[in-house]
Specification:
With 97 residues, the chain is mainly alpha-helical. The protein has helices spanning 2-21, 25-60, 76-79.
Amino acid sequence: MHGVVGMLDVMHATVQEQIEGQRNSKVRQVFQTLKENIETVQDSSKRAVEAADNVVHAYDMNLQIPDTPLQDTDSPATAASANTTYFDHKPSRLIEG
């Protein structure tokens, strides 16, 4: 899928060059519309690649739910000090990606 995104980047650059070099306003408008359509497809493709990468990472983690704390003191919510909040807690597992 990364190849599709790369090809769309090449197409976008080629169309941009044609827009800049085109003197005929009607032809330039056709290229502009094509450029906008390519940008729309690029956004969708990049989101699809991100989603696929997320699935790969989930499979790498064996689709496991994180372990539940055995005691209340193990919870990041209760372990927070005066300067930190629940959302400042960092998981002990390293997630690479």
